[in-house]
Amino acid sequence: MADHLLEVRDLSVRFHTAAGAVDAVKNVSWHLDKGETLAILGESGSGKSVSASAIMNLIDIPPGEIVSGSILFEDRDLLAISAEEHRKLNGKRISMIFQDPLSHLNPVYRVGWQIMETMTAHGRSRDEARKRARELVARVGIPDPDAALEKYPHQFSGGQRQRLMIAMALALKPDILIADEPTTALDVTVQAEVLALLKELQAETGMGLLLITHDLGVVAEIADRVVVMNAGEIVEEGTAHEVYHNPQHAYTRKLIAAAPGKGDMRSGGSERPVLLEARNVSKTYGDFTALENASFKLHAGQTIAVVGESGSGKSTLARTILQLEAPTGGEAFWKGRNLFDMPSKELFGLRRQMQMVFQDPTQSLNPRMSVFELISEAWAIHRDLLPKPRWKERVEELLVQVGLRPEHAKRYPHQFSGGQRQRIAIARALALEPELIVCDEAVSALDVSIQAQVIALLGRLRDELGIAFLFIAHDLPVVRDFADDVIVMQRGHIVESGTAEQIFNRPREAYTQALLAAGLDPDPDVQAERRRQRLQAAV
Amino acid sequence: MAMSETLPTSEPVKTSEPGAVMRLAKMLTRDRFALVAAIFLVIVVLCALFGPALLGDAATAQNLRGRNAPPFAFERGWLFVLGADALGRPLLARIVVAAQNTMMVAAGAVVFSMTVGATLGLIAGYAGKTISQVIMRLADVIMSFPSLLLAVIVLYILPPSVTNLIIVLAITRIPVYLRTTRAEVLEIRERMFVQAAKVMGASHLRIIFRHILPVVAPTLITIATLDFAFVMLAESSLSFLGIGIQPPDITWGLMVSQGRPYLTSAWWLAFWPGLAIILTTLSLNLLSNWMRIALDPMQRWRLEGRTKSDKAGETSNG
Amino acid sequence: MIQLIRQRTLASFLSLVGLIVLVFFLSRLTGDPTNLFLPIDATQEMKDQFRALHGYDDPILEQFGRYVWDVLHLDFGDSVRRARPAIGVVLEAFTWTLRLALITMTLVTISAIIVGSLAAFRAGGFFDRFASLLSLIGASAPDFWIAIVAIVIFAVTLGWVPTSGTGSVWHWILPVGVLFIRPFGLIVQVVRGSMITALSSAYVKTARAKGVKNTPIIFVHTLRNAMLPVITVMGDQAAALLNGAVIVETIFGFPGVGKLMIDSILQRDFNVVLAAIMVTAIAIFIMNLLIDMAYAALDPRIRY
What residues form DSSP beta bridges with A291? Predict the structure, then answer.
């Protein structure tokens, strides 16, 4: 009899790629008990998902190769059994849900059929499967389950799709559920609901839950124990409380320190002249209102954060003000001049004063241009800014300013990591010496530790160059110690605005309060306290 | 502030980037099939350029004693290595000379249709909805014509000259480039780097020529290579049917047609020019497949790192 | 769906109008139409008579109106050579071509999907490389050349099959075989690429995590998704078959619409040529519509 429900011993997996062999995980060991939640915490490239893939027999061999180790489940080594035996366990005894449920559901089949398939693949009759599928869909909180079974994945929202994935995975009441970044692409309020659902279902069935995540907040909310991974190795292991409050390894300490939302909040910054003023800016697409009557004032050198969930209109606001979208109503004044009815020649001159940094630097940098070309394009467009002989020198200066090296100018974007690419994008924005930089989710695609570095860089530029920021984000903690003022948006409207201190400490509107409550604190004790309060409120 | 973020080791950066041509040549040597195809195509192009000047006389000199001379008989000289046609003209010389017309029609049609198609596609993808709709409906109209039949009727009514042949073939191929270009432009112009250029104040021309066209170009070149083969086959078919190039001009398709009556007695009359066609189109297809990877910066490593991954594969198997 | 049909019919109608106008003006404005309709050795008297009979002396717009009216009634006049309505001659020939195209396309579809899927399932393996090379050669081969080489080998040298006609099953083997090669080569390549993409997609991972067996993963989960790009190519190829049958029909003496057209061109039977082009064009329009409907049926995300 094994001591644990599932035990991974000494697992090493190697991938053979064009660039050579890569050790994805090295000598990894951990275990999961019945009714327990174990989180594997790590940043991208840490190998946190590899052991789960090995458990589910999802590693393609080749290019993958299992170098050593065993995975024990009920006295059997999952790495030694045949593919057919493995198949019989998958979905029945051990199930898995993934990040990005849209691409993980087959787009051309009805969701009811896909849920039933878990059961029919393991020999249940169609009638039985249909009955159970209806039950499950109702249980995971999808309205009108009968109709839902007949719909296709694209007809649901992101949160609903993840609920359907959960229903599919739990159809046969497995002993173990593996959840690989299950809430990463979801809004905070939806994330809280999905995590709560997972916890409830775990309590009902007593299954072991293995949660793979990059998010300390998710760990704090749901995990009993945590395994921290870096570069393919386990660096630390313990209860969630222990690891957070008494981290032993330098990497864990760095990760915890990088978690946003713990520094001092900024205050004021509104004594300087108004740079940008929006009055009742609106944008509709046909019948759909993306933005309605948005007004705010941004002073020189000030940072305003615009926070909201997907579909709140926060990006539309930024894009409309920068004239990437034509506004359908309202006015926006740049130093007193209305941007919305300005001759295009004058607008061209103003372009250089307001620049933008986009969410995904992989996409915002033209892959066919070198770093030098990317940055100097600004001066090719605005010819009077800098004479050509000085371009090289200035590019190198800018690269140093954003923390890269002068010789990086010759390279191409794909030769850099995500964080470095975002630095290039920032250098490009700086090339025009703007007074305002709009950051559209500029750090949300980055790992936490990189995120902290980029925000620190932006903070330094703000202090040194006096640049104003309009900082669009879905994540409240990120803006907490960076913004002067915060605007909260929901469904195209500004719900509430005020100083960071006001919004975070004394939120007036229910939606802001809900948003703050749904956000996850990296401290397990804080989350435990919040759960207790929620429970009391419910009773 | 950590400044020591290092580059990932899996992406080594060379201190000096070799020239684009050199890099492509190097990648070509990694793919044996593509290399052979490229060499063959260079030979064909050289034949097309210099063949008529060098062998023009030999290809038209009749030699009644050598009528339908069989191939691989060396006593008549190397020009007769592939045999002779019904008038005793050496087949090898005729194939070399015919390469010019064959290539000219195909190249003319491809360049014509690519230029017009890509331009219209850029406009359709970049301009407003109305213009785009008009252009797309036009493409639909051309697309829904049976292309060979269209060519047949046009060449029936108009005299079948090289120019008319090029125009007819080109028009039927325009929609291919138009649709591809438009689809790519629609996708690329929504990409963040185009938005970033807009934020910097880049003009429409700059966005089109600096940001969109370079991304579309490799796709267009790949399609053009493939299309070259298609157009060549279409021209050969028309010439074979007798409504393409007319004698005394020759193309490979016409040569097959001229050899057809002698199929049972002298198979080589139709066989060799047909083989020339099939080898050329095969080479174009191979090269196009290679280009699809070589011209894509995301996939290029497959060719650049080929030797390395082969080694890795060997160790994992061994 | 109804909107799709309406939209497509409209586009097809526009295309037809374009074709009608093109043919009219090409035939009337590039010279004397009597030269197109009458044999080359016709006397001046015959020409004058013909011109008066068909109103070629009338104003051009009046001629155009009459021409459109006739075309709308599918009245293309009589076949000069056969002395019966051109449309009848064409429809008779068209049934042969349609049969040829249907048989070929069915065989191509089945075999290309099987070969392409197998190649994709073991991508990089021996079968994959073999199939890729074979399909590449197939896609590169000129059909008229394959046809005559096939005749020399199978009909003349080996004497296994007849060279032309439609009398028995044996007569169909060579035409179908030759027509088969090019679309097969092209579609195998598309199926392979599309299956490789589909097999590496996220939903296949889910299916494996659910414990679904390999066979349903390939044939239920992947194939339907992979068929979407394949269908588009299949439509193009089917259209090309209706087209390309010209060559094969001519070489094998197959009484289809392609051979009819070439014969009519050589015999200067212009009414038949016109009718044949219209019928083929309409057939291609209908097929494109079917393709769009199949696409919508396979992918629930597509709503027209």
Answer: A283
A117 contacts C212? CB cut-off 8 A: yes
Length of chain A: 539
> Which of A516-526 are b and which e, b meaning 16 or more Cβ less than 10 Å from the residue's Cβ?
bbbbbbbbbee
- The answer to whether residues A222 and A211 touch, using CB atoms and an 8 Å cutoff, is yes
Over residues A362-391, the pLDDT tens digits come to 788 888 888 999 999 989 988 888 888 889
Q: Are A307 and A474 in contact, with CB atoms under 8 Å apart?
A: yes
Count Cβ atoms within 10 A of the Cβ of residue A276 and give its class: 0-12 exposed, 13-18 middle, 19 or more buried. Answer: buried
Please give the torsion angle defined by the CA atoms of residues B124, B125, B128 and B134, in that order, rounded to the nearest 10 degrees. Answer: 30
Q: Which of B144, B146, B282 sits opposite C12 (nearest CB)?
A: B144
Q: How far is the alpha carbon of A378 from chain B, nearest alpha carbon, in Å?
A: 6
Edge-to-edge order in the sheet of strand A354-357: A354-357, A436-440, A468-473, A303-308, A485-490, A493-499
**Token pair for residue A333?**
């004044």
Task: Put the strands of the sheet holding A20-32 in their side by side order.
Answer: A20-32, A6-17, A64-73, A76-77
pLDDT in tens, C190-204: 888 888 888 888 888
Pairwise CB contact (< 8 Å): A103 & C202: yes
Q: Are C274 and C16 in contact (CB under 8 A)?
A: no
**Is C139 touching B (CB cutoff 8 A)?**
yes
DSSP secondary structure code for residue A307 in this structure: E
Taking residues B218-230, report their average pLDDT: 82
Query: Which residue ranges form the domains of chain A, and what is each CATH number?
Result: 106-169 (no CATH), 274-506 (3.40.50.300)
**How open is the CA angle A304-A305-A310, to the nearest 5 degrees?**
145
Cβ <8 Å between B201 and A368: no
pLDDT of residue A38: 93
pTM: 0.76
Q: Which of A14-18, A35-39, B171-175 has the lowest mean pLDDT?
A: A14-18
Which residues does chain A have within 8 Å of residue C203's beta carbon, measured at their own beta carbons?
103-107
pLDDT greater than 50 at residue A475: yes
CB-neighbour burial class of residue B9 (10 A; exposed 0-12, middle 13-18, buried 19+): exposed
Q: Give the residue numbers spanning the domain of B99.
A: 2-317
Q: What are the tens digits of pLDDT across the range A137-189?
A: 988 888 888 999 999 988 888 888 988 999 999 888 899 999 998 888 788 88
Classified by CATH at the fold level, domain C92-270 comes out as: MetI-like fold (1.10.3720)
CATH number, domain of B188, equals: 1.10.3720.10
Q: How far is C217 from chain B (nearest CA, A)?
A: 27
pLDDT digits (tens, 9 = 90+) for A223-262: 999 999 988 889 999 998 888 888 898 889 888 888 877 7
**Backbone phi, psi, residue C33, to 5°:** -60, -25
Q: Is C280 in contact with B236 (Cβ distance < 8 A)?
A: no
Residue from B135, B136, B145, B228 to probe the interface with C (highest C Cβ count within 10 Å) = B145
Give whole-number Cα distances, A162 to A43, B47, B261, in Å: 22, 63, 70
Phi, psi of C226 (to 5 degrees): -70, -25
Average pLDDT over residues B246-251: 81
Q: Report the length, in residues, of chain C.
A: 304
Tell me if A200 sits within 8 A of A535, measured CB to CB.
no
Q: Which of A64, A219, A96 is nearest to A165 (CA)?
A: A96
**Residue A463 contacts residue A301 (beta carbons within 8 Å):** no
The proportion of chain C whose per-residue pLDDT surpasses 90, expressed as a percent, equals 2
Structure confidence at residue A375 (pLDDT): 92
Please state the domain extents for chain C: 92-270
Chain C: residue whose CA lies nearest to B139: C15
Q: Which of A159, A107, A18 is nearest to B30 (CA)?
A: A18
Contacts across the A-B interface (CB distance below 8 Å): 113
